[in-house]
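testing teh design pipeline on a random one, pls ignore if ur not involved
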């Protein structure tokens, strides 16, 4: 069955409870840094650390009146701490707390996303090795081109997701900064040494320079990395959808016993999870555009970015986490039909070997113009339905005279196109990619293979 989303960790990061907990963590870290410098009494620090807390519902009620979330939060905390609460938020502006806490949220969210990409890569790698030598037709412009293997397609996806992981890792580091520079970034009330101390306690780097906020190009970079990862998954699922089309049917996303494809047509087996991923990728790309719009703000800061971020940052990180889990499930349980791939490879009656033949003729001394004319003439006869390409080529006197009949036959061996597969796998997967060709498993009847695949899918779980 289609897996439910069973990873609540990402959602918890963006809950009100988590957000206020991180705000409090920042406030307490500032108090610790100030107590270490003698700015506030250590006794007061002990009281703050032992009593500080908040109530989410209470904060919501206070915010309805004061119309300011940070003030509502501080009021709730102060009611629990008592008189020593006067030392909380000392010398800070709201964005010092909000942006520094947001960095902690984004780092935590990024770690989950990076782990999700790695898990998807593991699934792609396993299926790539499984189908390293599964021959299929390559297509350009939607038209049959030359033979490839399905493993090469999977290896290409694995490599692209690796670039997405690198981008997410880089973006994680660029949002892993805090700031306590005050209302306009001049450290008028707290020194840079306090900022550096607090950031160290929180596992962040101090932003080298800020105004009232951390600059939003950092957040836009993360959103761009998310959008690119989503676009790569959109590419993968679009390809799976195309390969699942009835007239192609070389692969199929998992379809479990009891699943329904259509309310009106019982025969339907639709790639609905792939389509869902493609659709949600559009949302993530749109959110990246909104993040770019957040970069230019008025003077030392306005608030136009804040409302946008409350939507796009939780939504995009949750959506990417969700779609990564779904695509991992699809790849792990993907039904692959090598027999159908061979059928489709043969549908063009050998035309896919036209370039191999052309190059062989040129290599043996025939001018490219004469070779092209002969090969094209034979090709057009095949398009017209006269026979197979090999038959038509054998009737071309110049071709046979140049290559001989055995030389012509050699041009129709698909292995000529796949000689670089071990090299490509070694480039992508390192030394493990150069393993000897595995022995092909004996062919089984299609119903038996399908039943085995379905059993494997039922055992699959989204981590």
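output:
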């Amino acid at each position: 069955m289609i897996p439910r989303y069973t990873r609540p960790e990402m959602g918890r990061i963006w809950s009100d409870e988590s957000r206020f907990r991180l705000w409090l963590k920042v406030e307490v870290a500032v108090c610790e840094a100030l107590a270490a410098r003698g700015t506030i009494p250590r006794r007061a620090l002990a009281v703050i650390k032992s009593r500080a807390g908040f109530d989410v519902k209470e904060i919501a009620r206070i915010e309805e009146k004061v119309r300011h979330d940070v003030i509502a939060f501080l009021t709730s905390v102060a009611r629990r701490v008592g008189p020593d609460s006067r030392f909380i938020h000392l010398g800070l502006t709201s964005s010092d707390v909000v942006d520094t806490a947001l960095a902690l949220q984004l780092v935590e969210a990024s770690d989950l996303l990076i782990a999700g990409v790695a898990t998807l890569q593991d699934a792609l790698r396993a299926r790539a090795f499984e189908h390293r030598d599964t021959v299929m037709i390559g297509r350009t412009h939607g038209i049959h081109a030359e033979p490839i293997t399905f493993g090469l397609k999977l290896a290409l996806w694995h490599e692209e997701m690796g670039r997405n992981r690198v981008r997410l890792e880089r973006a994680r580091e660029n949002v892993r900064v805090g700031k306590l520079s005050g209302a306009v970034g001049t450290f008028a009330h707290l020194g840079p040494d306090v900022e550096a101390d607090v950031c160290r306690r929180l596992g962040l780097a101090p932003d080298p320079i800020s105004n009232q906020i951390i600059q939003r190009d950092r957040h836009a970079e993360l959103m761009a990395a998310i959008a690119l990862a989503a676009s790569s998954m959109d590419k993968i699922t679009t390809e799976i959808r195309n390969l699942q089309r009835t007239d192609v049917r070389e692969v199929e996303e998992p379809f479990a016993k009891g699943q329904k494809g259509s309310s009106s047509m019982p025969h339907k087996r639709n790639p609905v999870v792939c389509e869902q991923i493609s659709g949600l990728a559009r949302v993530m790309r749109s959110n990246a555009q909104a993040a770019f719009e957040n970069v230019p703000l008025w003077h030392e800061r306005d608030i136009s970015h804040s409302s946008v971020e409350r939507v796009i940052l939780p939504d995009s990180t949750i959506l990417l986490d969700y779609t990564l889990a779904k695509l991992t499930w699809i790849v792990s349980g993907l039904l692959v039909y090598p027999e159908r791939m061979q059928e489709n490879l043969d549908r063009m009656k050998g035309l896919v070997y036209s370039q191999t033949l052309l190059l062989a003729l040129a290599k043996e001394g025939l001018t490219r113009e004469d070779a092209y004319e002969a090969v094209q003439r034979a090709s057009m006869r095949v398009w017209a339905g006269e026979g197979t390409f090999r038959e038509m080529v054998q009737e071309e006197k110049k071709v046979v005279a140049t290559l001989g009949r055995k030389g012509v036959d050699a041009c129709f061996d698909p292995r000529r196109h796949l000689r670089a597969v071990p090299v490509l796998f070694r480039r992508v997967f390192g030394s493990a990619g150069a393993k000897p060709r595995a022995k092909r498993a004996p062919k089984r009847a299609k119903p038996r293979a399908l039943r085995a695949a379905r059993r494997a899918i039922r055992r699959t779980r989204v981590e």
